[in-house]
Specification:
- The complex is a heterodimer.
- By secondary structure, chain A is mainly β.
- In chain A, about 0% of the residues lie in helices and about 60% in strands.
- In chain A, the strands form 2 sheets. In chain A, strands 2, 4, 5, 9, 10 and 11 form a 6-stranded mixed sheet that branches. Chain A has a 5-stranded antiparallel sheet with strand order 1-3-8-7-6, with no helix packed on it.
- In chain A, a hairpin with a 4-residue loop joins strand 7 and strand 8.
- Chain A is globular, with a radius of gyration of 14 Å.
- Chain A starts with a strand and ends with a strand.
- The model of chain A has no long low-confidence stretch (mean pLDDT about 90).
- Helix content of chain B is about 0%, strand content about 60%.
- In chain B, strands 2, 4, 5, 6, 9, 10 and 11 form a 7-stranded mixed sheet that branches.
- The radius of gyration of chain B is 13 Å and the shape is globular.
Chain lengths: ~110, ~110
Amino acid sequence: KNEVEQSPQNLTAQEGEFITINCSYSVGISALHWLQQHPGGGIVSLFMLSSGKKKHGRLIATINIQEKHSSLHITASHPRDSAVYICAVTANYGGATNKLIFGTGTLLAVQP
Amino acid sequence: DVKVTQSSRYLVKRTGEKVFLECVQDMDHENMFWYRQDPGLGLRLIYFSYDVKMKEKGDIPEGYSVSREKKERFSLILESASTNQTSMYLCASSAEVDTQYFGPGTRLTVL
């Protein structure tokens, strides 16, 4: 079983819809990251959070440490939001280096 | 502005060739990472480095080596490329315990 699980693996939405992508993890963490990767493009960090909720524009990320679960929400979705969204955690291995454990990603397609 | 660059976006090599992938960051970050990304498997850590001349194996180091002679540069070396090393290779860097910044990726094809 993967230490970081995302759902759904694929998601198709109509423009304007509210979108939720979920991430569950099974290890102790010091932080959780949401990343975005456009087709053929590099990876951009959207959020790093260790508790509560963060908001940036139409994107909201929440985390529940007790339940080991995080969600990424996109409000008023737009075709330019089409990308792979990746959840990753910084696991508590005790070292100073922040090795990440990645989920396999959610492929989002927003249709006009 | 944060910047991580990789030497090539696309690379085609033949089986058995020695391949060098270079990554440079301009943020004075201590930590640098090499990942490969394959469909259905997500990103997997090959090697990372937390200081000049220091390196540690990640989850899939077999068939790879790395070099970090200067803080800003981290090289991934495929000693003898094989077809199962065809993949997207991504470099990242970060400060102590912080967000990782990714390069644009190198899509390597080994024929």
